[in-house]
Design brief:
Number of helices: 5
Largest sheet: 7 strands, mixed
Strand order of the largest sheet: 1-2-3-4-5-7-6
Strand content: 25-35%
Radius of gyration: 15 Å
Number of strands: 7
Shape: globular
Length: 154
């Protein structure tokens, strides 16, 4: 049976799920701020994020099961942040969630705009994903990190 894989917009009902994913030890290790996130802080951030018209937040679904999240924040470029639930890591969902996010931007009329992601030097899995999706390396805003850039739709 074929999997039904798709992105859906995050809703207020996803607050706890994204909180749990954000506090996963591997996610914290790969984040620029490695401190655990407190529930009240997360809830305030989450509500601001959902209300922010310059931010897109999606949940990757496999049939009815949530697999991961991707956030795209638009300033002068689309800043990418994503994570995959621990039980789904190493199965190609990181690449898929980014491909689907790029497709969403094209559908929303953002073709030709810049995508940007920063990855810690020791996060080899994400480095391979961005390289495999034809992102090119750029100067990072963080020490100990690599930056990846791509034009939406290319």
């Amino acid at each position: 049976m074929k999997e039904n894989l798709y992105l859906r917009p995050a809703t207020v009902d996803d607050a706890r799920l994204i909180f749990e994913w954000a506090n996963d030890p591997e996610v914290r290790e790969n984040s620029f701020n490695t401190d655990d996130i407190l529930w009240d802080d997360h809830l305030a951030w989450f509500n601001r994020t959902l209300a922010d018209e310059s931010t897109l937040l999606f949940i990757l679904m496999k049939d009815d099961a949530p697999v991961g999240q991707v956030r795209l924040v638009n300033s002068d470029k689309w800043q990418i942040s994503y994570s995959i639930a621990s039980v789904y890591r190493g199965q190609g969902y990181g690449k898929l969630i980014l491909q689907l996010a790029e497709n969403e931007l094209v559908v929303e009329g953002h073709g030709g705009e810049k995508l940007y992601a920063e990855v810690k030097m020791d996060n080899i899995a994400s480095q391979k994903i961005f390289t495999g999706l034809d992102y090119w390396m750029s100067e990072s805003e963080h020490v100990g990190a690599l930056a990846y850039v791509k034009i939406v739709g290319n």
